[in-house]
Design brief:
Length: 230
């Protein structure tokens, strides 16, 4: 199957999932995760109508963004080291993976240098997985309060990368939990914080994520095919 056919198939499944739970398909955006994939694949997706892409590795992203012909919007979805943030400033519209104050301070500093602001999501480690990034549920509210005080940043929601299970139904409770946490943060009414976005769901489980309230699904493999080891 071509990238265009894969995209059409993913979009159709997104629409069906929306219809099944009574959501407006326009509420859910598809982030085409193009990490490790070549510029030509991204350009093929752009020609097929995809505008929004997600990347996970800073150097690879910068190289590819400069090479891609055609208009694209970029999100950063991967684990982010503070010393790499300077290369992202002004290059992405949303960072999905902010999980510590020090990182947010550096993002604030780098966007401040160019006189702009950036939107970000707070990544939550729902499975208490030691190997994964993300703040714990216990620390979430205090982290959000701390980040909300920084200039040049807008907190717009939450992101999660739940533990992998073969059966997407086993992942559903994690999606539900992320939505509950966003609702809880909304009740705290922290100035400047808006819980508009829930970034959850990947190739394997994006339909369940949509049914549980995802507004951004991050899909790689179903669009671009399997990735080799990096
Ligand atoms: C790679 C990646 C994805 C895409 O995963 P697929 O299973 O290929 O759809 C989504 N989110 C993040 C954070 C990723 O790193």
């Amino acid at each position: 199957m071509s990238i265009a056919e894969n995209l059409a198939w993913v979009r159709e499944r997104m629409e069906i999932a929306c219809r099944r739970c009574g959501r407006n398909p326009e509420e859910v955006r598809l982030v085409a995760v193009s990490k490790t994939k070549p510029v030509a694949a991204i350009e093929e997706a752009i020609v097929a109508g995809q505008k929004l892409f997600g990347e996970s590795y800073v150097q690879e992203f910068v190289d590819k963004k400069n090479a891609v012909a055609g208009a694209a919007e970029w999100h950063f979805v991967g684990a982010l080291q503070s010393n790499k943030v300077k290369y992202l400033a002004g290059q992405v519209t949303l960072i999905h993976s902010v999980d510590r104050l020090h990182l947010a301070e550096e993002i604030s500093r780098q966007w401040g240098r160019i006189g702009e602001s950036v939107e970000l999501l707070i990544e939550v480690n729902l499975g208490h997985e030691a190997t994964k990034s993300g703040t714990s549920e216990e620390e979430l509210a205090s982290l959000v309060r701390g980040i909300a005080l920084l200039p040049h940043l807008k907190i717009r929601g939450l992101m999660a990368l739940p533990p992998y299970c073969d059966d997407p139904e086993e992942i559903r409770p994690f999606f539900r939990e992320l939505r509950r946490l966003a609702g809880y943060l909304t009740t705290l009414a922290i100035p400047g914080v808006e819980m508009r976005e829930l970034s959850m769901g990947m190739t394997h489980d994006f339909e369940a994520a949509i049914e549980e309230g995802a507004t951004l699904v991050r899909v790689g493999t179903a669009i671009f095919g399997e990735r080799g080891k990096r």
